[in-house]
């Protein structure tokens, strides 16, 4: 078969369903199957992938993306056709792999939706077709289901003997190389009427072996619930001497299983396999027969009868599949877009589900995400909430509140996130590290929440602080601290200390202001957003995030003034030690003096080492706001004057970094231009870039970073390994953090352009990302955003990326302009001609003020942004009296709260 003829995926319905011909002709494809109960699976077109509930509980062997085509240990469903031999319904046999590009190869079609996966495979020589549907049922059971339907596609009767096979790894990912054989000796293997179950005797850990209770099983039945005919529980016996999982002796020779119907025979001390032999059947031409396979993980021995009663028939499978489709459709359809491109609208549904997938998988347990032990990092907590504010807003207030418990009194934060909301764990690996950007994100997310809700009282709610052995942003250790005293910050008298959320926000943004390097920008420390810039801890500076913090300081000052005008708040109550950070209230610090800032910061660290006095002071809210504003304005002037790179051709941009030798990273050098996209995004997104600088930045980005092949590169070619900056430059150029199209920063660049009114340029950025992601011949990914696009145009690290939250946020609040303004609904569309349909309409369905709205924009004249304004607005057919702005309109929250909650409300906006 000629792979050049392989077409990309095509959408087949209105709920994101898509189809792909010959999916196994593309490498690295995988699909997520997951539920809220903690079952996390992956499935490929050949049924490879893994099933797990966490780092220490893998049902199937843990894998990396290269294992998808190199490992033989995958789910499989074999058919022995009398007179013709063995055929894998999954396409995963040595014979089928060898025939891959020959005329005798299988024909295969993938169909998928939210979150189900189906591959239909047929082979004319064998005269058989197999339809294999996989999903993880919504709910809390840790199971994965698979239904296989076999059909005789020939003209004569076929006699078939089916065998379902799933390798049972049944232990921690740590055991994959470390004591792989030894841990197999712990296996206790049980056969029952429906399958094979493994419960290892111990959880193997050289720090202390513990009794294991977790069980893993593979069970099956015919579509009507009939039991299998026999079992192969031991892997080496199933494959035979010299055999393999893709050419196993038991199938190739159609051997009779040693353990017959009903099971009841137990084994121990070997690698296990869930090998289920079903009774031979004879199918007439066109006839079909179905089987259901259930993979399960439980906290103790599995109740097999109850499990199979719930899942073990075709009828149950079909019912649960319908339920699961509805569950995910409800989540995804909380936000829907209608533009002039229906495929783009369908693609956005897959973007919309990605933040939910990241909440469930963390940053692990998918083939490209083969690192970490589960969970999310600090930055992820806040950026994932951006999407949740749009999709699941009711849950966000408590999430934000819980997350603030991870802030330390030195302005840094916990980096190990527990499984429960608000759970933070002291560092297990004794590695002191601070990402300097971490303090900037919480306020950005909280500000979105405040705009969406108007809930300024949230800022005055009190929360604890995190405490561990690290102090002074991990530069010192508290020798008096140990785990027995707990992880809550305490006062000198031993009481748990709480401060307002506002106090937490101020702390995270004020400490960095003083924590500067020799060029008076905030120190890079362990790294910033770009984890690859991790070798500049001593003298490195992040100018990019200095811009972010500066913008935060100005916006916080504005929030304080709103607190006074709308809530009558005259004072701010803070820990007395924090007065040292509000220097204009005590004694002024020369902001131009690096040593002066360090002296003040050291005084603060000494005053609040790893405990506080517990005394609070009430400060005049205007004076605090003035202090923050002065700091912000000083930073803006500093950045615009000292960090602006003027190009010889007239372009200009911001230097984003200093390296560990104290050298400016960006500019025009003898070996070429060095430029980062990050260094431009944050001055643009906030207030640091002056209006007259923006056109120059755009021109410089287009000249130095835009590439027609892969879009907006994260950086230009620096040349050579930069050991004074970070590991990123050890990567080949055009890959990951070294010059790839990194979706996260690209989307934030587009968001920043929209924010600053450069809509045509912002649209170009988003269109570039969409085109790259959907160019299947190059990207080779299913619908959605990858973490990055590599030098060849391939999409990498699919599904789990914070860029999905940012694209969803940008589409809702900037492109369609449906956003909050301290609780009121602000409509400020920035649609371009291509986004209106043939009738001049574009619409979005979303949630605001706990009500569902469909906002419909109708252009009656020009379709080009800048040439239309809001002419009129109706709500459920009645005209709305508007508060008008420049190109915008506000509907007061009171009017929205008067609406029914269980109804879709229609806002029609006429643009003229």
UniProtKB/TrEMBL annotation:
Glycosyl hydrolase 94 catalytic domain: residues covered: 327-564, 625-817
InterPro entries, per database record: 6-hairpin_glycosidase_sf (IPR008928), 6hp_glycosidase-like_sf (IPR012341), Gal_mutarotase_sf_dom (IPR011013), GH65_N (IPR037018), GH94_catalytic (IPR033432), GH94_Enzymes (IPR052047), Glyco_hydrolase_94_b-supersand (IPR010383)
The keyword Ribosomal protein is assigned to this record: no
Entry keywords, A to Z: Glycosyltransferase, Transferase
Segment forming the signal sequence: none
Residues that span the membrane, as ranges: none
Coiled coil regions in record: none
Residue stretches making up the Glycosyl hydrolase 94 supersandwich domain: 100-312
Keyword Glycosyltransferase in record: yes
Domain of life where this protein originates: Bacteria
Pfam families for this protein: GH94_b-supersand, Glyco_hydro_94
Protein's name according to its UniProt entry: Cellobiose phosphorylase
Organism the protein comes from: Paenibacillus odorifer
């Amino acid at each position: 078969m000629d792979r050049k003829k392989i077409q990309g995926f095509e959408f087949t319905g209105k709920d994101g369903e898509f189809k792909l011909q010959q999916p196994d002709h593309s490498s690295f494809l995988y699909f997520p199957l997951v539920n809220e109960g903690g079952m996390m699976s992956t499935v490929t077109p050949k049924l490879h992938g893994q099933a797990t509930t966490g780092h220490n509980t893998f049902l199937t062997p843990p894998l990396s993306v290269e294992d998808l085509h190199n490992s033989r240990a995958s789910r499989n469903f074999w058919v022995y056709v009398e007179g013709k031999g063995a055929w894998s319904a999954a396409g995963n046999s040595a014979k089928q792999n060898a025939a891959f590009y020959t005329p005798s190869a299988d024909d295969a079609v993938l169909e998928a939706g939210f979150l189900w996966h189906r591959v239909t495979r047929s082979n004319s020589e064998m005269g058989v077709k197999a339809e294999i549907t996989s999903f993880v049922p919504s709910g809390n059971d840790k199971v994965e289901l698979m239904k296989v339907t076999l059909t005789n596609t020939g003209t004569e009767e076929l006699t078939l003997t089916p065998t379902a096979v799933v390798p049972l790894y049944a232990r921690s990912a740590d055991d994959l190389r470390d004591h792989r054989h030894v841990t197999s000796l712990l296996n206790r293997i049980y056969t029952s009427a429906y399958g094979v179950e493994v419960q290892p005797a111990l959880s193997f850990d050289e720090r202390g072996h513990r009794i294991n209770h977790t069980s893993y099983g593979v069970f099956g039945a015919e579509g009507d619930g009939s039991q299998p005919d026999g079992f192969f529980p031991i892997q080496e016996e199933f494959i035979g001497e010299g055999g393999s999982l893709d050419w196993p002796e038991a199938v190739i020779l159609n051997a009779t299983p040693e353990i017959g119907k009903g099971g009841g025979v137990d084994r121990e001390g070997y690698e296990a396999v869930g090998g289920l032999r079903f009774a031979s059947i004879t199918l007439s031409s066109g006839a079909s027969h179905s089987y259901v396979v259930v993979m399960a993980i439980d906290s103790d021995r599995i109740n097999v009868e109850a499990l199979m009663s719930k899942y073990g028939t075709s009828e149950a499978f079909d019912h649960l599949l319908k339920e699961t489709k509805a569950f995910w459709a409800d989540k995804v359809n909380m936000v829907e877009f209608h533009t002039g491109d229906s495929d783009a609208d369908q693609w956005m549904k897959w973007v919309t589900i990605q933040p939910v997938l990241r909440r469930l998988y963390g940053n692990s347990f998918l083939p490209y995400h083969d690192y970490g032990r589960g969970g999310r990092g600090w930055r992820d907590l806040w950026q994932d909430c951006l999407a949740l504010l749009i999709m699941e807003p009711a849950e966000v207030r408590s999430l934000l509140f819980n997350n603030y418990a991870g802030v330390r009194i030195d302005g840094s934060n916990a980096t190990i996130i527990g499984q429960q909301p608000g759970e933070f764990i002291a560092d297990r690996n004794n590695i002191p590290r601070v990402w300097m950007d971490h303090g900037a994100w919480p306020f950005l997310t909280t500000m979105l929440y405040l705009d969406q809700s108007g809930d300024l009282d949230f800022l005055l709610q009190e929360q604890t602080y995190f405490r561990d052995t690290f102090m002074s942003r991990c530069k010192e250790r508290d020798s008096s601290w140990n785990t027995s005293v707990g992880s809550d910050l305490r006062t000198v008298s031993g009481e748990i200390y709480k401060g307002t959320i506002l106090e937490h926000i101020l702390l995270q943004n004020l400490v960095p202001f003083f924590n500067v390097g020799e060029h008076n920008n905030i120190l890079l420390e362990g790294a910033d957003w770009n984890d690859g810039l991790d070798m500049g801890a001593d003298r490195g500076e992040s100018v990019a995030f200095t811009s972010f913090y500066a913008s935060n300081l100005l916006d916080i000052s504005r929030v304080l003034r709103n607190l006074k005008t709308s809530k009558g708040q005259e004072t701010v109550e803070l820990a007395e030690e924090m007065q040292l950070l509000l220097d204009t209230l005590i004694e002024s610090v020369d902001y131009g003096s690096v040593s002066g800032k360090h002296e003040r910061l050291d005084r603060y660290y000494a005053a609040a080492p790893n405990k506080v006095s517990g005394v609070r002071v009430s400060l005049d809210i205007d004076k605090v706001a003035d202090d923050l504003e002065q700091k912000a304005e000083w930073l803006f002037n500093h950045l615009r004057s000292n960090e602006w790179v003027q190009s010889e051709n007239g372009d200009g941009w911001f230097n984003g970094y200093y390296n560990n030798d104290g050298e400016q990273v960006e500019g025009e050098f003898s070996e070429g231009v060095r430029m980062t996209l990050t260094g431009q995004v944050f001055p643009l997104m906030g207030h640091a870039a002056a209006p007259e600088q923006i056109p120059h930045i755009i021109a410089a980005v287009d000249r130095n970073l835009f590439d027609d092949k892969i879009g907006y590169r994260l950086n230009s070619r620096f040349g050579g390994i930069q050991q004074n900056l970070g590991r990123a430059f050890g990567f080949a150029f055009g890959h990951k953090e070294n010059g790839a199209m990194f979706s996260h920063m690209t989307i934030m660049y587009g968001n920043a352009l929209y924010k600053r009114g450069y809509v045509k340029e912002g649209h170009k950025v988003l269109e570039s990302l969409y085109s790259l992601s959907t160019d299947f011949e190059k990207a080779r990914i299913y619908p959605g955003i990858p973490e990055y696009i590599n030098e060849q145009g391939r999409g990498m690290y699919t599904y789990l990326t914070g860029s999905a939250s940012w694209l969803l946020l940008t589409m809702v609040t900037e492109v369609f302009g449906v956003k909050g303004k301290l609780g009121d609904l602000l409509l400020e569309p920035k649609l371009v001609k291509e986004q209106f349909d043939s009738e001049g309409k574009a619409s979005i369905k979303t949630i605001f003020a706990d009500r569902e709205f469909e906002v419909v924009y109708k252009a009656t004249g020009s379709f080009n942004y800048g040439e239309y304004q809001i002419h009129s607005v109706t709500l459920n057919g009645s005209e709305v009296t508007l508060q008008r702005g420049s190109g915008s309109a506000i509907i007061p929250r009171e009017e929205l709260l008067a609406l029914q909650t269980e109804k879709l409300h229609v806002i029609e906006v006429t643009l003229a």
